[in-house]
Write a structure and sequence with these properties.
Blueprint (H helix, E strand, L loop, with lengths): L8 H32 L11 H8 L3 E2 L1 H4 L22 H8 L1 H6 L4 E2 L1 H4 L11 E2 L9 H4 L6 H6 L7 H4 L11 E2 L10 H4 L7
Antiparallel strand pairs: 1-3, 2-4
């Protein structure tokens, strides 16, 4: 562009600004024309018109968050701003608890899982879709539990492991959000072991 070679800095800046505004105007007009064509068809504009790759990825998963399935992105997300930054409609903890009341009640128990107390639901859960039940992030404990529990990660490399631990089935012995028992245990004393280990 020749204006970039202008010797006068003021002139160079003015010409660059003018070129930028022209490009913005062209882009806005093209978008408006596209929207006008879409409105003629009688079809409403949805998030997936632009985010088709995301829709395809979500629909390939076994478990899909209900609002995603219903294309109700606005339940969690505010519309895009000029900066194209996607934002949540409210703090993530309140947002999740609006629909998941059981998490709120679990968080009032004597022992609360730290991410729950800190509002870090997305550390363990994928908000859109997953191949793991309860939208737990894919990748097993390595993608969730071990990101905080360094000692447990080292124990996973031991030669002999408790079978549920070896299979990444942490929920066999631990509650995910909160418990009245230390270690977020699902039961107290022998009652924790007897579902799998007979005492007779």
């Amino acid at each position: 562009m020749n204006f970039l070679r202008a010797r006068n800095p003021w002139l160079r800046t003015t010409l660059a600004l003018g070129a930028g505004l022209l490009l913005l105007s062209i882009g806005t007009n093209l978008f408006a024309a596209k929207e006008k064509d879409r409105s003629k068809s009688g079809r409403a504009h949805t998030c997936y018109d632009c985010h088709a790759d995301s829709k395809k990825a979500y629909l390939q998963k076994k478990f899909i968050h209900a609002p995603v399935t219903k294309e109700q992105c606005g339940v969690c997300h505010a519309s895009h701003g000029f900066s194209q930054k996607l934002t949540l409609v409210k703090d993530v903890t309140k947002l999740c608890e609006d629909c998941h009341a059981s998490v709120r009640s679990d968080s009032t128990l004597a022992h609360k899982h730290a991410p729950v107390g800190e509002g870090k639901c997305l550390g363990c859960h994928d908000p859109h879709a997953s191949n793991t039940a309860a939208l737990v992030r894919d990748g097993g404990p390595e993608a969730t539990c071990y990101t905080c529990h360094d000692k447990t990660k080292l124990e996973s490399q031991a030669g002999h492991q408790h079978p549920p631990f070896q299979k990444g089935e942490c929920g066999t012995c631990h509650k995910a959000h909160g418990s009245d028992l230390p270690g977020l245990a699902t039961a107290k004393g022998e009652a924790l072991c007897t579902p799998c280990h007979s005492t007779g």
